[in-house]
Design brief:
By secondary structure, the protein is of the alpha/beta class. Helix content is 31%, strand content 23%. A hairpin with a 4-residue loop joins strand 3 and strand 4. Bound molecules: adenosine-5'-diphosphate and zinc ion (2 copies).
Length: 735
């Protein structure tokens, strides 16, 4: 019957212009009638010249009062279809982040599928050969075969059930296939395939872990969000694995989110070791083909566990049983371009959709999460101690102002002594210095001239190894000048401290020590990060030093000393979350010490030993630092007491940005609730970046029923503006 009727589809077009975020009706040609489904990606002719563009089918119908419709051209991919849940989720993302529906849909599919041609995506197949005739027949047949190559192939097939086609002579294969002696079988091969050699020991949970485990599983058929607040080394990962094992036994699947993948390889490997080929991984460092294959594993139900970064939260699983978000405080869970979604919000939505638990784990949860837990919106689960009574490291604060008097500018006398001690004991050391490069800024000692990036409103950083001055935002660089462009003096000096300079200092002080640096410069090549971690773990080095990427999730049993070279760099960032972040970063890096039970110590160097955060760190009091920061936020009307919206008004023309920023302000002022607070426009943050001037307006509100409508119409006013664009960020991480 279907064949006789006309079939139509509504297609949401993949087109950049926001005003086109709507569907168009197309006719379905006969040969595609049995193939098209809602949620499928198709190619359709569009606009003048009928150029082909992609779109998603949002509806199928059998009548249309529109005449003269165009037909869809083809289906982009038969397997990759957004299911009903993901289509609904798209609406939620559109509504909460104020993006277009099409950009929400695009975000949910792996990025390789956004490109126009997907030929390179086609999955690899291996061809096998098998006998088509009984073995007895072959044994006599083989005697008459003249070709040596054919004989060889047949003999292999008498020994083995099937063989790989590519291992044998193509002409021999062809002849035998044509004669009907053998047949060919194609098998899908995934680009990443893990053997099932699971070699990890499964621990029996401790009493504390067991309680957490039981509490989570109590709600296995309920939408409930847990905040698992467990100190570093308290055995959170082990609990995740036990929970997942149970969920899988019941035939359901799990999503595990981790921050940046390079920093999370240890946890990924733990999952591989425990669950083998039942794990798929989804993250942006995979090749397009790998991504496509991993996605197919999930779609086809070949795996029960998906481990990945932010966008893995969209894994198309229909029988989801649990979602786990590790290091929930990580900023990587918020996407910082459109759509500006937060994976934790998506996880909550899916937890409600599937009626399943969501576990947010961290040693240093965000204060917003912690506040929710204390209010009972989340269920708080605490693990205040490390597994097996291993103690947390002791913390020593060093006043660098005192050290400077003794000419110890970079490494204090105390830290030096401790490093020597640990080197002697053949234990390992981690040093954090949260700034790469050699010095922070280079300036002229005669006139004070500083070198700035011509594209961004920021000073350049000196990199000694390449003798360049570099912008860490846009990548601009110049050779370090010998003469000041302003006064022609040759007195060009670097001030401050970066990882390269620390390296020099370490070489000078610890001649026998084997050093390895980890920062954005030494890890730019694919695989270099993993190599550093592996070799440090194998004790090929004594001291690992670098930027904050060394602070996360790494488990090195032999590390017994952690040093923070300059804690002030983290404390002095002008943002209402800096106290929270500094405490988190410094606790995380401290947590790298003594994980296997060696008596361990953390040395923190600072010019502000009386700073409240530093004091709380010394006492190890997450709670007190939380309470202190919350009292400030209450007074200053910051989250979680107020919600924030960040609006950026951007243009390459300064005047245009400035004028429109004032217009936006006035518009909001007359359209929002009077209780909402509108700040700005300011040039906060980095005002000029990559040649774009950026003004900012911040809205603080508690309840505002006019907000979304106002923001949407404001957004629409700028869709077709020639020189200005506007970005809206609901609940921004940085303002
Ligand atoms: P976290 O994720 O909280 O930092 P992990 O789960 O990585 O902690 O555990 C820290 C260390 O303790 C790991 O080396 C892990 O193998 C070990 N561990 C965890 N749970 C147990 C247990 N129940 N018995 C013995 N060792 C455990
Ligand atoms: Zn000068
Ligand atoms: Zn720049």
């Amino acid at each position: 019957m279907k064949g006789a009727m006309n079939m139509y589809v509504e297609v949401l077009i993949e087109y950049k212009v926001k005003s086109l975020d709507r569907t168009f009706t197309y006719l379905v040609p006969d040969h595609l009638k049995d193939i098209v489904k809602i949620g499928m990606k198709v190619k359709v002719p569009f606009g003048q010249g009928d150029s082909l563009i992609n779109g998603f089918i949002t509806n199928i119908k059998y009548d249309s009062n529109l005449g003269n419709l165009k037909s869809i051209f083809d289906v982009t991919d038969r397997e990759l279809v957004l299911n009903e849940e993901l289509l609904k989720l798209g609406d939620y993302i559109k509504d909460t982040t104020l993006c277009t529906l099409i950009s929400a849909y695009q975000t949910m599919l792996p990025s390789s599928l956004k490109i126009k041609t997907i030929t390179s995506n086609y999955q690899k197949q291996d061809s096998y050969l098998k006998l088509k005739m009984p073995k007895e027949f072959i044994k006599t047949y083989i005697e008459d075969v003249r070709g040596e190559r054919q004989k060889e192939l047949l003999e292999s097939l008498l020994r083995e059930e099937k063989v790989l086609k590519k291992d044998y002579s193509p002409s021999a294969v062809k002849t035998l296939l044509e004669k009907g002696i053998i047949e060919e079988e194609r098998v899908n091969v995934y680009r990443i395939s893990k053997e099932d050699n699971k070699d990890s020991i499964e621990f029996n949970l401790t009493k504390e872990q067991e309680e957490v485990y039981n509490r989570i599983l109590e709600s296995k058929n309920k939408s409930e969000t847990f905040l698992l607040h467990g100190v570093t080394g308290s055995g959170k990962t082990e609990i995740y694995m036990h929970v997942i094992k149970k969920i899988i036994e019941e035939g359901k699947c799990a999503i595990v989110l981790v921050p940046e993948i390079t920093l999370s390889m240890q946890i990924v490997n733990n999952f591989y070791k425990r669950f083998g080929s039942d794990v798929a991984i989804l993250h942006s460092a995979l090749s397009q083909g790998e991504k496509y294959d991993e996605y197919l594993k999930v779609l086809r139900g070949d795996v029960h566990i998906i481990v990945g970064t932010r966008s893995a939260i969209f894994a198309p699983i229909t029988n989801l049983g649990v979602i786990i978000i590790d290091e929930e405080h990580s900023e990587s869970y918020k996407q910082d371009n459109t759509p500006r979604y937060n994976a934790i919000d998506i996880a909550k939505w899916r937890s409600e959709y599937h009626n399943i638990p969501l576990v947010l784990g961290s040693a240093t949860p965000t204060y917003e999460s912690y506040a929710r837990a204390l209010k009972g919106v989340y269920t708080l689960l605490s693990l205040p101690k490390r597994v097996n009574d291993i103690s947390l490291p002791s913390i020593k604060i060093i006043d660098m102002a005192e050290e400077a008097k003794k000419r110890n500018m970079i490494i204090s006398g105390y830290l030096k002594e401790k490093i020597h001690e640990r080197l002697e004991k053949k234990e390992q050391i981690i040093l954090l210095l949260n700034r790469r490069g050699f010095g922070t800024l280079v300036n002229c000692a005669t006139c004070g001239y500083t070198f700035k990036c011509p594209n961004c409103d920021i000073t350049l950083t000196y990199h000694k190894s390449s003798n360049t001055l570099r912008c860490h935002y846009c990548g601009f660089y110049i050779k370090k000048p010998d003469i000041c462009p302003e006064c022609k003096s040759t007195e060009i000096k670097d001030a401050g401290l970066g990882t390269e300079k620390l390296e020099e200092e370490l070489k000078k002080n610890f001649k026998e020590a084997r050093l390895i640096r980890m920062d954005a410069d030494t890890t730019s090549r694919k695989g270099s990060h993993e190599k550093i971690i592996k070799e440090f773990k194998e004790e090929k080095y004594d001291i690992l030093f670098g930027t904050q990427m060394i602070s996360k999730g790494l488990d090195f049993p032999k590390v017994s000393l952690v040093g923070v070279i300059n804690a002030d760099m983290t404390l002095n960032i002008p943002d209402f979350r800096s106290g929270e972040r500094a405490f988190a970063l410094l606790s995380q890096v401290s947590g790298r010490a003594g994980r296997s039970g060696l008596s361990s110590e953390v040395v923190i160097q600072t010019f502000n030993p009386d700073n409240f955060t530093i004091k709380m760190l010394e006492m190890g009091s997450f709670l007190k630092n939380y309470q202190y920061e919350m009292s400030i936020r209450k007074k200053l009307k910051y989250p979680p007491y107020y919600y924030l919206v960040g609006i950026k008004i951007c243009s390459s023309i300064y005047e245009d940005a400035s004028i429109e920023a004032t217009k936006v302000y006035n518009y909001l002022k007359s359209n929002l609730n009077p209780q909402s607070i509108i700040l700005g426009p300011t040039t906060a943050g980095i005002f000029k970046m990559k040649n774009i001037y950026r003004f900012q307006i911040v809205i603080k509100y508690r309840y505002d029923d006019n907000l979304k409508t106002a923001l949407k119409s404001m957004d629409e006013m700028y869709i077709n503006h020639k020189t200005v664009y506007v970005e809206v960020d609901m609940n921004p991480y940085y303002i």
